[in-house]
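Subject line: Sequence and fold of a protein, written as structure tokens
Area: Proteins and the way their chains fold up in space.
Start of record: The labelled sequence and token lines come straight after this line.
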Amino acid sequence: MKRIIDFSSYSSIKVGPKVEVEMIEEVDKSFDEKFFLVGGANNLLLSPSPPPLAKLSKEFDYIKLEGDTLVIGGATPTGKVLSFCKRNDLGGFEFLAKLPGTVGGAVRMNAGVKEYEIKDILLWVKSAEGIKEARELNLEYRKTNISTIVYEAGFKVQKGFNHSLLKKLLSLRSNQPTQPSAGSVFKNPPNDFAGRLIEEVGLKGKRFGNMAFSHQHANFLVNLGGGSFAEAITLIELAKKRVYEKFGVKLEEEVIIL
């Protein structure tokens, strides 16, 4: 089944064309070879000519508590997981607060906030190749070796939702802009912060066309209304160039550019 998605309204950064997207309703290895999975499109920057795209259908949107393992479908929104854990007094998932996207995408990029990451609670993932244990996935800062579609994942659970931790983590996000963005543009370099480096080279608030590095947080590229892929790429490349020239640091994109 196919579906037309307008990424200028569907993606979190509100940039992209209308594209025919394959809706995946069953586990099939051929999808891994033919398509890029878009998930919730919360960390994607789509060009006018993206590769073939696919999206998991609602068949993979579920949460099941099986013993001491929480089994979650890859299409399940992270916000839905957080609500489930609050309702059932389960700890370990508090960092998902205001972390947009789906579980499959969060697992593939080892999403997290500060020292809290998916790798801390992940047990295994299910792809078309079968089940893989978390220790096989090379889970690092905002990176894994997962190259296949995550249809399902298993997580360890503990009793006791930590409301004080939730409050602390939400306060960390209070400085994030409200305009459309794809989250952090760049990964933080070792022992430093991408936002600090971008600010130091004079690009905080820098605007090009209708895209800009946020006045609130320099590592957020925001859409001021009608921003384009070309404008976004211009600012991304400018930041990489200036930071490297001044600090000798090569910024690595966290946003996925298609």
The chain has a mean pLDDT of 93. The longest strand covers residues 18-24.
